[in-house]
Specification:
Number of helices: 7
Radius of gyration: 27 Å
Strand content: 15-25%
Mean pLDDT: 79
Helix content: 40-55%
Structural class: alpha+beta
CATH class of the domain at 149-261: Alpha Beta
């Protein structure tokens, strides 16, 4: 099996399946575990599938559209043949009930098409955003276990932010309230794809690392205020945006170690 064949199989794979009873798909998944290009391809496709499903579930046709269309239809009892009319009398096309049902379906389809058109650019941007966010979260997860010292040690988050700003690194703003329970340890500066990143080390029940970068530098198009969770090996990550900043919170653990803080 070559990479192109593996990609075709991976396109049909859904990560919410607990088991896959297909030898070829399992072979493609194994290749993705061992091949960085396929691993990235699979992660991007899964991220897009989740985002697309979420957007699709949010789409609703205009309320009462079908009822309004049917309300305008003529009273069918008025066209019923009388004793003096032959039973085979022609029914005018616009008086046929099937016509109005078809019209209702067409107009509903037009309404849905309008919604899809309105969201098309957002869907395209979301797909690109999710790929970039995945890559940034993965970079943070790989960087976290390599941290051996901090450029600046202080328990005060404000002082840590001041240090980062003086060293041309983004500083956190408007963090979730539950993160107030974490104590500052210090910080360091980091660069990812030529973008300055501020890294704040925090301590609670576990040690957490908060990565802060400018959204514009990473070229995100849309807001993502709700956190995305992704596991990379032993490290779990949560990623979200606030204003002009993008955040990744990492911990050696699972999603449940992060979600209560966000």
């Amino acid at each position: 099996m070559d990479k192109n064949e593996a990609k075709k199989l991976l396109l049909a794979y859904r990560d919410d399946l607990s088991e896959v009873d297909n030898a070829e798909v399992n072979k493609a998944l194994k290749m993705a575990d061992e091949d960085p290009e396929l691993k990235t391809f699979l992660a991007q496709e899964q991220a897009f599938d989740r985002a697309f499903t979420q957007k699709l579930n949010e789409i609703e046709p205009p309320s009462g559209l079908l009822d309004r269309i049917l309300a305008e239809a003529p009273d069918q009892t008025a066209t019923a043949p009388t004793q003096s009319e032959p039973q085979s009398a022609k029914i005018i096309w616009w008086q046929h009930p099937g016509t109005w049902s078809a019209a209702a379906c067409v107009l509903a389809l037009i309404a849905l098409t309008a919604v899809f058109t309105q969201n098309n650019s957002n869907t395209t941007n979301n797909r690109a955003d999710l790929a970039l966010m995945h890559n940034f979260a993965q970079a943070a997860a790989l960087h976290s276990p390599t941290i051996q010292h901090m450029d600046f040690q202080n328990n005060d988050i404000g002082e840590i932010g001041t240090y980062l700003a003086k060293n041309n690194s983004p500083r956190p703003q408007d963090l979730p309230e539950n993160m107030d329970q974490l104590l500052g340890m210090g910080c360091l500066t980091y660069t990812w794809q030529d973008n300055p990143v501020g890294v704040i080390c925090l301590k609670g029940e576990k040690v957490y690392n908060l990565y802060v970068a400018n959204r514009g530098g990473i070229d995100l198009k849309n807001d993502h205020p709700s956190p995305f969770y992704k596991q990379f090996g032993n490290y779990s990550t949560a990623l979200w945006t606030t204003g002009d900043l993008i955040y990744v919170l990492t911990v050696e653990g699972k999603e449940e170690d992060l979600s209560p803080l966000l």
